[in-house]
Write a structure and sequence with these properties.
The protein is α+β, with helices and mostly antiparallel strands. The chain is built from 30 helices and 25 strands. Helix 27 runs antiparallel to helix 28. Strand 15 and strand 16 form a beta hairpin. The protein is elongated. The strands form 4 sheets. The protein has an 8-stranded mixed beta sheet, with helices on both faces.
Length: about 900
């Protein structure tokens, strides 16, 4: 606890002094403590990504089908399935490697440098070469690369938002902190790795490097935090089990039927294997990969980089978004929004962040211009089109000056008294038109103490008007700065004693404004049934004010803070879960508490998306169902997340939710198409066996239909656009299977209709027309091709009529139908292909009859959808 020790004790304990370490000492300490590096996640090689694709349950199912096909002697089936699996693995590997490369490109590739005193001289070194006991020299804009105990400082403020989540800069000094177990934000004499110096200068002793820094502790937490499977992974695993169960059930039924018919056991084995392979949706893994790849590419155009392919659908599944405030819902740029005068007049200021666009509205802008000019004079920031550097409040004052077009020409600063945290003010003596003036800005109490007329303001009906104004601004989340000015006597030198008899000018309220698009984005989330929570390191009042502007809540009872969270945690999981369920805003929480909140939401059955940009967000990003990092965030946050919002825009998350839902809807459409066609094949297969008819299709014909016809159409279904109102629907239940009751019913009905139609045609051709079995199979093959190319239009929507889904929204469907039918004509007309697929040419008249019969599928499914929708409306 170096923050509780004096500088002399720290120097003695760390074996250093103000002249720094010697070269020999640095070598010894580097050997003892190692480099100042955090363990960085090694980038997965292409081979590793490729082999990880084999973990997919659907791929495992197909590998079983390959082995079964080889046992049954169906080498062509096995080769075809191997080809499908290989293409699926290649596509998945390519997409994930591409996403990883994009994420890596976002990382900061510049080697961090830092200044240290070694051998009595100030030198610049790589940050990774820092060691315990080094004396580090810091100034405005420097990134701090190790944990330091401050030994001297001047006007020092630091941005610690990546660790604490607080948007306001922290004042730092070298005074001993007496409090035991002080939090990071309370350790005012410590500087932490990864944070940034905003203003001032300092020297500090390196007290912690690498994993022994506060950032290092969070990195270590990440290594021990269990990753969560994406919603799609959970659902696909369940679907794979359901398909396996169905295939086994069908195989069992067929085995019993064949045993009852006294069929030899080796024939039973071959028949069961053939049927199981035909029932297996071979194209499903490839179709899933295609749908997710398309969604991933669409998200990339919306500035959402998906790092893991299966995460592309995840945003569409989330029921809760636990969002960081600073830099995610707000712009992380203090902005002057209000000016209040002692007489009660008020000015409202438009514009967001450090952008010069905006205007000041009020009765008479002269007083506002005077206040802005004083803020510009008493200022250490640099603000121009090329560079914006300095304290955020100083920057905001200069931006306000730009909006009011104040002119500081002719004003010459004479003496500057910089801001010190213990003094709570800064002052500037300046010359104007031959006279000397002093202006002060700082806290209300301190600035009032310098004013001559403050007793007048505090008397009579205007009693304590400034205090009321200050309290009102603070209650609404504003950071308040008071300003005063007055003429002083000319003299050689000016000190604090010369700041007196000033005129109080007014108060300026600053706030980290919300992103302009955040309110509409949150509204869309609510419409989509997604609950948005704010988790921040800021003060509860500030968080509540922002939450009201974002329309997240209007009730302070829905706001909590770290101390309450910690107290509730001690009461046990059930009590804590009830507590979390009632809250919308979580203020001043630690990284560990944020992690506990996410775990609680997951226990409540929510699928949780967590957004963040700081190191403090990383553990929660990892444990969430879907972690979303901001593109401008820290390397740790980006490496931990499942996806990255490149433009830091909350609106992009909503776009990602939409594309995720589209991806899931298209996956269901593909499953409806493939499984219903597979069920149809099983149906006419078993019915034929029951009445002692030959199989309607042989293995090679089934393979042609399953791979070529199905393959073309499930590819086309991957490109379906969003259906109307997709963001008006509530999120799916986290417990809901892909193969739910609605989908099961539609698959069963369409599969049985198709199977019955094909079986009826098969019976007619053999028993009525007495057609040769080989020729009849050619007819059945053509019929199945026609049916599938018509049925794909049914599958474009689970609820809407096929005629209400415009063809122009997906011309690939039409192209797929044309290509599929042309290929069928080719295999029928080209002799060697016809012989290979055991088919033959069919007359145009007979093809027209087959097409008419196939069209009945569309009629029956339109009747089903109409009836189903009518019943739903009645409910």
């Amino acid at each position: 606890m170096y923050y509780r020790q004096s500088i002399e004790v720290v120097e003695k304990e760390l074996g250093t002094n103000k002249t720094g370490l010697t070269t020999a000492e640095v070598k010894l300490r580097t050997k003892q403590y190692g480099k100042n590096l955090l363990p960085k996640k090694k980038k997965d090689s292409i081979l590793k990504i490729f082999f990880s694709e084999f973990k997919d349950p659907m791929v495992i199912l197909l590998i079983v089908a390959i082995i079964a096909s080889l046992f049954a002697g169906e080498a062509i089936d096995a080769i075809a399935i191997i080809f499908i699996v290989f293409i699926d693995l290649i596509m998945g590997t390519y997409q994930e490697n591409k996403a990883n490369n994009t994420a890596e490109a976002l990382a900061n590739l510049v080697t961090a440098k830092t200044k240290v005193i070694r051998n009595g001289d100030t030198v610049s070194i790589n940050a990774e070469d820092l060691t315990i006991g080094d004396i580090v020299v810091l100034e405005s804009g420097d990134k701090i690369s190790a944990d330091l105990r401050i030994i001297e400082s001047h006007n020092l403020t630091v941005d610690e938002s990546i660790l604490t989540g607080e948007s306001v800069q922290v004042d730092k000094n070298n005074a001993i902190v007496k409090k035991e177990d002080a939090t990071i934000s309370e350790q005012t004499n410590m500087l932490f790795s990864g944070t940034t110096v905003v203003t001032g200068r300092a020297k500090g002793i390196v007290a912690g490097i690498g994993l022994n820094t506060e950032i290092g502790k969070i990195a270590d937490t990440l290594n021990n935090t269990k990753e969560t499977k994406s919603p799609l992974e959970v659902r696909v695993e369940k679907l794979s089990k359901q398909i396996s169960f169905l295939v086994l059930a069908v195989a069992a039924v067929l085995t019993i039927l064949l045993i009852l018919k006294n069929v030899p056991y080796h024939e039973i084995f071959l028949s069961v294997i053939a049927l199981a392979v035909s029932a297996m949706p071979e194209g499903l893994p490839l179709a899933l990969t295609m749908a997710l790849t398309i969604a991933s590419n669409k998200m990339a155009k919306q500035n959402v980089v998906v790092r893991k392919l299966k995460s592309a659908e995840s945003l569409g599944s989330c029921t809760v978004i636990a969002s960081d405030k600073t830099g995610t819902l707000t712009v992380n740029e203090q902005t002057a929004k209000k000016i209040l005068l002692p007489n009660g007049e008020e000015y409202n200021i438009s514009g967001t962040g450090f952008n010069f666009n905006g205007e000041v509205k009020g009765k008479n802008l002269k007083r506002a211009e005077e206040i802005a000019l004083l803020g510009v004079i008493n200022n250490e920031a640099t603000v121009n089109e090329k560079q914006i550097v300095g304290d955020s409040i100083d920057i905001a004052f200069k931006v306000l000056g730009k909006k009011l077009k104040v002119n500081e020409k002719g004003l010459r600063p004479i003496e500057i008294i910089p801001y010190e945290s213990e003094n709570k003010y800064s002052a500037v003596f300046f010359e104007k038109d031959g006279e000397v003036y002093c202006t002060v800005k700082g806290s209300l109490e301190v600035v009032k103490s310098f004013c001559k007329d403050i007793h007048l303001i505090s008397a009579g009906p205007k009693s304590k008007i400034l205090d009321r104004q200050n309290e009102e601004l603070a209650k609404n989340g504003y950071r308040v700065i008071a300003l005063a000015v007055g003429r002083v006597k000319k003299q050689a030198k000016y000190t604090v004693d010369d700041i007196k008899n000033l005129t109080f000018m007014g108060l300026v309220g600053f706030i980290d404004p919300i992103r302009e698009e955040a309110v509409s984005s949150i509204k869309e989330c609510k419409t989509a049934g997604i609950k948005v929570l704010m988790i921040t390191g800021d003060h509860p009042l500030t968080a509540f004010s922002i939450a009201k502007d974002l329309q997240l809540t209007n009730t302070f009872s829905e706001v909590t803070e770290g101390r309450e969270v910690e107290a509730e945690l001690k009461k046990g999981e059930k009590s804590f879960d009830r507590f979390v369920k009632k809250k919308i805003i979580f203020a001043r929480v630690t990284p560990q508490q944020k992690l506990e909140i996410v775990e609680s939401l997951k226990r409540q059955g929510e699928f949780v998306a967590v957004t963040g940009d700081g190191v403090n967000d990383a553990p929660a990003l990892k444990t969430a169902n879907i972690g979303i990092a901001m593109g401008s965030g820290t390397d740790i946050a980006r490496e931990t997340a499942d996806m990255i919002i490149v433009d830091d825009n909350f609106k992009s998350i909503v776009a990602g939710i939409k594309e995720g839902r589209v991806a899931y809807a298209n996956i269901r459409k593909i499953i409806l198409f493939l499984i219903s066609c597979g069920l149809a094949e099983v149906t006419f297969f078993i019915l034929s066996i029951i009445i002692d008819l030959p199989m309607p299709l042989v293995a090679i014909q089934l393979l042609w239909i399953n791979v070529v016809t199905d393959g073309i159409q499930d590819f086309a279904l991957s490109f379906e656009k969003a259906e109307p109102g997709i963001l008006n629907e509530p999120p799916r239940s986290p417990k809901e299977s892909i193969f739910n009751k609605i989908l099961f019913k539609e698959i069963a009905i369409s599969g049985l209709i198709i199977g019955s139609l094909v079986f009826g045609a098969w019976v007619f051709l053999l028993n009525v027309v007495h057609m040769d079995v080989s020729l009849a199979r050619g007819y059945i093959m053509a019929l199945m091709v026609f049916i599938q190319n018509i049925h794909v239009f049914n599958c474009r929507s689970e609820h809407r009529s096929a005629f209400s889904v415009p063809l122009r929204s997906n011309w690939l469907i039409v192209g797929g139908v044309v290509i599929s039918i042309i290929l069928q004509f080719i295999v029928m007309e080209v002799p060697f292909l016809a012989q290979f697929l055991q088919t033959a040419p069919i007359s145009f008249e007979h093809l027209a009859i087959l097409f008419g019969l196939a069209s009945l599928v569309l009629v029956f499914m339109e009747i089903y959808k109409f009836t189903s929708n009518k019943l739903t409306r009645k409910k």
